[in-house]
Amino acid sequence: MRRLSLIAVLAAVCVVVIPALSLADKVEVYTVKEEDVSPMELRNQALAEGFARAVADETQTLLGGALDANRLEAVRLYFVDHSKTYIQGYNILSSEDVEDGLMMTLDVRVNRRTLRDGLTRLGFFETARTPQPAAVAWPEEIAEEDLVKLQALMVMSGLKQSAGVYPAFTLEYGPEETYKGALLLEGTEWTSAGKDMSVVWTNLWTRFFTRPQNDVAGPKRQLLTISGWFTPDGVLEFDRVLKGWDYAVQDSRLVEMDIQPTGVGATWDMNILDSKRLATLLNSFLPQRGLSFQLNRDSGQ
């Protein structure tokens, strides 16, 4: 029996599998022209809307279609001003001035890996199907526009308004047209301030969702062992397939290959984002190919 590391396997078969970092998404946008808006400003608005739609669509794909229409719209609204980090590139396929606005068709390439990391930090994989209870409070004199934006951020983040629970978020007005946010847990308080409410909000909730998770539900590090291949090529092909299941698993790594006269097996180390969906994928993909699998908790985590 021979057990090979991933590096040794790649060297032996001279194959390197590199997953795609970006995916192209064709989007069409129509932007209404407002008074005193220059053609360049209108073009930039159309681009921002196109980027937001592409990133929102990719978010829905990464989450396995888990977002309802209201949350998906809130996600799109958020990304109108916060999508550039996730854009790998774009092409303008067509642009047409119409009587009251601009119609544009874009081919937008979204960096899936960067987006997945960002969504993880914002808690999307934790709240995709189960809302996070939270107490959210705002000042009595809050402007209607600010209240609408705050409520949209709550929907975007997958929060369920609940009285008297932790985490508890409080929004206040600060000096010079700034916002101040405070996020309170039992024994812990984080604060953030700035002129963009969305940035204040995400700064705090990122800290919440990236805190040490020893006592809460979160991604579980596990080992996936599969046996039954005839050659190492099948292992490397499945490694590519597994990386495409990034709405169910995250950070999968091929850590060992076991080559025996009777067949080839392999082990992956990964974070499980959705155990039920992963089990469904494995059961639909492996048995019909004569493969068997076993999942075990990684004792090193």
TrEMBL record:
Organism, scientific name: Pseudodesulfovibrio portus
Name this polypeptide is given: Lipoprotein
Lineage of the organism: Bacteria, Pseudomonadati, Thermodesulfobacteriota, Desulfovibrionia, Desulfovibrionales
